[in-house]
Amino acid sequence: MKAKVILKATLVYDINPDDYPSECDTYVKMLQFDLNTYKDDPIFLLSCTKDIDIRGELIE
């Protein structure tokens, strides 16, 4: 028997252009920068998240 756990994390935050490297000159690039950061360090994302939905199911 195996189990599958699904995490859905929701993070809402203000994007401050001053906090990004100069090559992030549009909000789309700033968001992509954040997504890459969270992909590389998902623990950081979870530590900042206020709303986490955790579900589980048994699978064979």
Helix content: 25-40%
Quaternary structure classification: single chain
Number of domains: 1
Sheet with the most strands: spatial strand order: 1-2
> Which blocks of ≥5 consecutive residues have pLDDT under 50?
none
H/E series? EHHE
Can you give a write-up of this model?
The protein has helices at about 25-40, 40-50; strands at about 1-10, 50-60. The chain has about 60 residues and is α+β, with helices and mostly antiparallel strands. The chain has a two-stranded antiparallel sheet. α1 (about 25-40) packs across α2 (about 40-50). The longest helix is centred in the middle third of the chain and has 14 residues, at about 25-40.
In a nutshell, what does this entry contain?
By secondary structure, this protein is α+β, with helices and mostly antiparallel strands. Helix content is 35%, strand content 30%.
Keyword list:
2 helices, 60 residues
Write the layout of secondary structure elements.
Blueprint: E1 2-10, H1 27-40, H2 42-48, E2 51-59
Antiparallel strand pairs: 1-2
